[in-house]
Amino acid sequence: MNCLGWLKKRRSKSKGSGKRATTTTTASAVSTSRSDDSGGVRPASKSTGSTSSHRSISSLYEERGHGQLRDFDYDELQAATNGFSRAQKLGEGGFGSVYKGFVRPPDGKGDRLAVAVKCLNQRGLQGHKQWLAEVQFLGVLEHPNLVKLLGYCAVDGERGPQRLLVYEYMPNKSLEDHLFVRAYTPLSWNRRLQIILGAAEGLAYLHEGLEVQVIYRDFKASNILLDKDFRAKLSDFGLAREGPTGANTHVSTAVVGTHGYAAPDYIETGHLTVKSDVWSFGVVLYEILTGRRTLDRHRPPGEQKLLEWVSQFAPDSRNFRMIMDPRLRGEYSVKAAREIAKLAESCLLKNAKERPTMSEVVDVLRRAVQAQPDTPTAAASAKGKRVMRLIDLLKLNISEAHVGKLGVDGPMLGLFEPQVRNGGEVSGLPVQLCCRGKRLMNQDKAMMRLISPANQPRKALPP
């Protein structure tokens, strides 16, 4: 059956009965259905205080998006993914599975195009509404930092309803993969800034760049995809909602989203605003800095919740560098890192009204990016490597008996604070080193303990 056969069939029945058709296109199918708590698009309605002049996503889709998306045949997508084989699977989640495939170009000429095909779980109305939401939102939204929806497929056959979406292929996976999966090469400091800036620009576009305000509602590292040039692109709009209109300040909805990223005010009240997205953005900013997940049950009890852990290290404190991702190997700007942490703190303010807008966030991040050199200097790179060699040596020799009080002066380099004097001898190091499987940290004091010069024999670095 053709992908829109189910729509055409309903249209023909409506014409035959002499009644006005309730569903003529995918867009009208969405616009005539009320959005539930799963997200999706809602028409202008009394619940939001909108007026007859309010522009909705569904009306914009009728004008702009309907003819831009490609109507794929189910058999074509099945062949493109080699029968949705495991070898082609890119990922799996609550929405269903995503497969890599190759489809013919729209004009039928040239090489086949690499695509990602999302197959939604067959969960009845809920899955269908999320599919409709993605079709409408991404049929209207267009920005360099949003993933491009190429087309869709909808089939009601013997195997039940099949709902598929076809996106541009993102060869570099997601930000989550590069931050948390050790098999991936660590992202450099400059690349992290470029990625989070791109994500911020995409979110600012949703909030402020359209006739309709869009609340993303699921901003997290796994939804920030990376193209061949590591440009960030927001994906997965199944939970997106139109923002409040008229005199309303929020949209009331049951709480959905991802634990650890949802704003506390949204969780407590069900009141959804763009500032809910800003809070989620603040969480990801700290993930960028630390290389840690917002929730990680594999860490010690005091470090499992990221926001609680980083609260011990204020951006202006001497021990702030202790939060920085060790995979950066000291090659980052401490000044810029402090500014990013301050920005994260402003995004995470308890009072949602006091949080910045995403356009303000973009301005801060642009200044941070512009202040960075294109690549680390040779001196910084060499110094970072020297520090890492030092750490490797100390891992073999330091015991907890060597832990003393904070007493080292001078500047820090990234995570570590070596004091190299007298021809390369070591007089002090911070204690955030994993020695014999234990983190040498005094949880009862505000400052981290350092290796005591009195207890630690001085050791010359190898040439």
TrEMBL record:
List the Gene Ontology MF annotations in alphabetical order.
Answer: ATP binding; protein serine/threonine kinase activity
Comp. bias regions, Basic residues:
7-18
Signal peptide coordinates: none
Top-level taxon in the UniProt lineage:
Eukaryota
Task: Indicate the segments forming the Protein kinase domain, all copies.
Answer: 84-369
PROSITE patterns listed in its UniProt record:
PROTEIN_KINASE_ATP, PROTEIN_KINASE_DOM, PROTEIN_KINASE_ST
Stretches of Low complexity bias are at 19-33, 45-58
Residues involved in ATP binding: 118
Region of interest (Disordered), residue spans: 1-58
Tell me the protein family, please: Belongs to the protein kinase superfamily.
Q: Which protein are we looking at?
A: Protein kinase domain-containing protein
* Organism of origin: Oryza brachyantha
Highest lineage ranks of the organism? Answer: Eukaryota, Viridiplantae, Streptophyta, Embryophyta, Tracheophyta
